[in-house]
User: Which sequence fits this backbone?
């Protein structure tokens, strides 16, 4: 059975945000080429939707589609009540609340977070949206724990992404969570995008151009990524970059949108996930090789990141190599 996805579109639709889940989920296939998802598009009353690109989208379904799927994706909008007044059509609000209460996973791309917030699904929860809209979002929805520095937020049953391209990051994350890295990486290759990106959207926020003499920290990040099993400290990283700790920390956050410690922890968790998927190494060895110390440390960080224990993650996503003649 394919995982069923409904993409909810509304007037003011950002066309890219409709194309993103169709492209990523549509290219998510197993090793035999079988599709893992079925995507369909809906709108209130199955009405034609005006896009921000100057053309209309003609959905095949109304809001009743939300009752028939496993995941609901709300595409971003650049006009309409959610982004202009912080309110949403009661029919949309009720349909989203019903889907959420029924156990559907609910996602938003870019300013689709305004729709989820207006429907009350983000109250007292962490979320993100496009950095350009962050100030208005906070004004409309002070009860939401907005983090405008990240590319996406996975809060379990409700997920939100930052602007435009971050929707790709979120959809690939969902594919990886649902079916493992092999399927997600295959979808990324088909779409000619990286399987994941470092840092957060803060790296794209408008700020004064750096001086020509200011060097990128890419070399230091690569150096650290090759030594995840080593006890790398902030002074170690700064020394490799030939900077003071204070300057290095500021420059690192400017380039990636996150602190060095947060970036390093995410790389270590990613490496641990890859080892769990592709090897039979004991959990203790995976923890050491990924720089997370002990099995308890690995368990804690994996639980905090994706909500499962190492053993459960391995059972779900373990890639078993094919044996000739077997």
Assistant:
């Amino acid at each position: 059975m394919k995982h069923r996805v409904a993409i909810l579109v509304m007037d003011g639709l950002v066309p890219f945000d409709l194309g993103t889940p169709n492209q990523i989920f549509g290219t998510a296939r197993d090793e035999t080429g079988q599709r893992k998802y079925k995507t369909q598009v809906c709108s209130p009353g199955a009405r034609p939707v005006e896009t921000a690109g100057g053309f209309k989208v003609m959905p095949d379904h109304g809001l009743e589609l939300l009752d028939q799927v496993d995941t609901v994706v709300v595409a971003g909008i650049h006009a309409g009540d959610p982004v202009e007044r912080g309110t949403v059509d009661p029919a949309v609000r009720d349909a989203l609340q019903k889907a959420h209460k029924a156990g559907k996973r609910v996602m938003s791309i870019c300013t689709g977070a305004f729709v989820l917030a207006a429907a009350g699904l983000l109250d007292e929860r962490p979320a993100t949206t496009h950095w350009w809209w962050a100030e208005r979002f906070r004004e409309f929805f002070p009860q939401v724990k907005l983090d405008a520095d990240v590319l996406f937020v996975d809060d379990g049953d409700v997920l939100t992404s930052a602007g435009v391209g971050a929707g790709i990051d979120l959809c690939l994350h969902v594919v990886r969570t649902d079916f493992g890295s092999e399927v997600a990486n295959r979808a990324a290759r088909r779409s000619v995008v990286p399987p994941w990106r470092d840092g957060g959207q803060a790296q794209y926020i408008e700020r004064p151009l750096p001086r020509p003499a200011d060097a990128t920290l890419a070399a230091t990040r690569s150096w650290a990524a090759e030594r995840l099993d080593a006890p790398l400290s902030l002074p170690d990283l700064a020394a490799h970059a030939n900077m003071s700790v204070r300057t290095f920390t500021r420059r690192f956050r400017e380039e990636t949108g996150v602190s060095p410690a947060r970036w390093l922890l995410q790389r270590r968790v990613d490496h641990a996930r890859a080892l769990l998927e592709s090897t039979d190494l004991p959990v203790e060895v995976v923890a050491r090789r990924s720089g997370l110390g002990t099995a308890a440390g690995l368990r804690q960080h994996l639980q905090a990141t994706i909500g499962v224990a190492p053993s459960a993650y391995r059972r779900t996503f373990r890639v078993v190599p094919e044996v000739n003649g077997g």
Q: What stands out?
A: The two ends are 26 Å apart (CA to CA). The CA atoms of residues 43 and 62 lie 5 Å apart.
